[in-house]
Amino acid sequence: DEAVKSSQWLLPYEQALEKSYLRRLAIITELKNALVAEQAELSMVYQPKVFLSTLQICSMEALVRWNNKLLGFVPPDEFIAIAEQAGMIEQVTTWVMRKTINDLAMFRAAGHTFTIAMNLSSHDIQNRALLDKLADLLAAQGLEPTDLELEITESDLVADADLATENLRQLKAKGFRLAIDDFGTGYSSLAYLKHLPIDTIKIDKSFVLNLSNDVDDQQIVRTILHLASVFELKVVAEGVEDEAAFALLRDWHCDIAQGYFISKPLSIAALTEWLAVSPYSQNAEKL
Ligand code: C2E
Ligand code: MG
Ligand code: MG
Ligand code: MG
């Protein structure tokens, strides 16, 4: 309160600094509460991915949502980054893992065979105890690591390529499927593709959102598709927002598409309704 009152004496850039500082502080405090709260502020939504060749649903990406009474909706990009810096990411990921694996068990009980993709932060893939917990949680529900795909952002892998390679090898050895997220934004040398034990690359949505109008994006996407075929990797295009992009990607033999054109991320209730009316068929073979 004192801090807020005194901010009228600050210069505009100092005010902006203080505002962002206060927001960070509020996010840290409120997130701590949310992680132990009785009433659920955190939730998961699921966004389908479909095979372009067969129009079958192949998997659902789990995305975390946070609605706070003071701050309103806080985007995951923002609070995940702050949780990492504040040493809280393990708690957030643990929450996400528990919820997602419970939901996966429920989907299986309802007869759905799709894989679930979970996002991990760079801190998570270095946290052996957390990864052991992940395996334990799956086993407790009678699920296999192959039921889960782990998405790791390219820039996180590039930051320490040797460490990342070792950690990913261990995950792969346990049977998890691995995907590089936001591919194309990590300014990598691409040499690491030779060594990383990954199954899939997800082309960053910045190259896909305007695909049908932007010739440069078309060249980039086709180049990535070629690269992936050389390394025998599956490719997901994220951010497919219109039929034109969907059709181009299909023509170019991109494996999998994800984006608002297919579906926005959905709550479990909304997803259940979507599955009942969706034109995409279910029970595809496993990835
Ligand atoms: P991401 O994993 O690359 O997820 C894709 C983001 O693009 C999601 O934003 C999704 O809602 C959005 N998106 C999907 N299709 C479209 C489309 O057609 N058009 C546009 N404009 N956007 C689309 P979201 O849910 O806000 O998540 C942002 C990022 O936050 C994620 O990027 C991921 O890096 C991170 N994140 C989300 N949930 C989790 C989580 O549970 N754990 C961790 N560690 N990170 C998470
Ligand atoms: Mg992702
Ligand atoms: Mg992405
Ligand atoms: Mg991302």
From TrEMBL:
Q: Where is the signal peptide?
A: none
- In this chain the EAL domain maps to 24-279
- What this protein is called in its record is EAL domain-containing protein
Q: What species is this protein from?
A: Alteromonas pelagimontana
Q: Shown portion of the whole protein?
A: 491 to 777 of 777
